Amino acid sequence: MIRFDRVFKRYPNGREALAELSFELETGEMAFLTGHSGAGKSTVLRLIALLERPTRGQVFVNGRNTSAVRGGAIPAFRRQVGVVFQDHRLLDDRPVYDNVALPLAVGGVPRREMDKRVRAALDQVGLLGRERSFPLELSAGEQQRVGIARAVITKPPVLIADEPTGNLDPDLALEVMNLFQRFNAVGVTVLVATHDVHLLERFRVRRLHIEHGRLATVPHAAA
What we know:
Blueprint: E1 2-10, E2 16-25, E3 30-34, H1 41-48, E4 56-61, E5 64-65, H2 74-78, E6 81-84, H3 96-106, H4 111-124, H5 140-152, E7 158-162, H6 170-185, E8 189-193, H7 197-202, E9 206-211, E10 214-217
Parallel strand pairs: 3-8, 3-9, 6-7, 7-8
Antiparallel strand pairs: 1-2, 1-4, 4-5, 9-10
Helix pairs in contact: 3-4, 3-5, 4-5
């Protein structure tokens, strides 16, 4: 489902983010992406979402080599990858409905279908009935759940998250991670970048640990 084959990434300012990084995440697998700040975690996620391209090497997502995805094919590719950010990135001047529906609106989905899918997505994250609320009227945990609903509205086979619990207290962080686990239970491939030790201990899933842009250890959860 996700495969990095000797991926090297250097930014225009000369910073080397990834060096010969190789790993594979199977379809329907859930894993944590760990490492210190600046280790390359965000770069990995941006390459998966085709927000960046590798300097060298190949990235495969859902069977496609991202290097072959160009021009007009990029939006359709990105709809296959749900992305959850630490800072929500919600539109504060738009209600919850509009925030969640945004990927569908961009894709030209008819209004009736959009209504159905927005309600279903909000129901999945426990926010059905809050469609007309504005982001600033919600708690931090609710805002993050809106971000998750937006990420899964296109029913993507891949869901990635960059420190999604970084601004949440332990109880809210647990709620968010339980949501990711629920999506994984129905076959969604999930990769979560985190440094939250408590979550790493509680959710015994595979870890991809990056140090200085390289895969350092890949410990597996105990049975």
